[in-house]
Write a structure and sequence with these properties.
Layout lengths: L24 E5 L2 E5 L3 E3 L7 H14 L4 E3 L9
Parallel strand pairs: 3-4
Antiparallel strand pairs: 1-2
Length: 79
């Protein structure tokens, strides 16, 4: 059962962060600087199959422990 299936209709404000607070990790390797961004899962309609989105979430959660979701369909008023 998913969160929506359980009747969830709101997102706790703890999980909502403004774009300017995005996490950027800068790692230096010799003279090379690498900017690492946490994975972004795009749930836009028609873009990816449900199976692909689930696999992206599984990979992001297993590798990073967290991820950002965009185009999720939650109304701006609710956010």
């Amino acid at each position: 059962m998913g969160l929506v299936d359980s009747g969830l209709t709101t997102i706790h404000r703890f999980f909502i962060h403004p774009r300017e607070n995005d996490i950027v990790v800068v790692a230096g390797v010799g003279d090379l600087i690498v900017h690492l961004m946490p994975p972004m899962i795009d749930m836009g309609r028609g873009r990816l199959s449900e199976e692909v989105v689930v696999e992206q979430i599984r990979e992001a959660a297993g590798t990073w422990g967290f991820f950002q979701v965009v185009n999720h369909g939650v109304a701006v008023e609710l956010i």
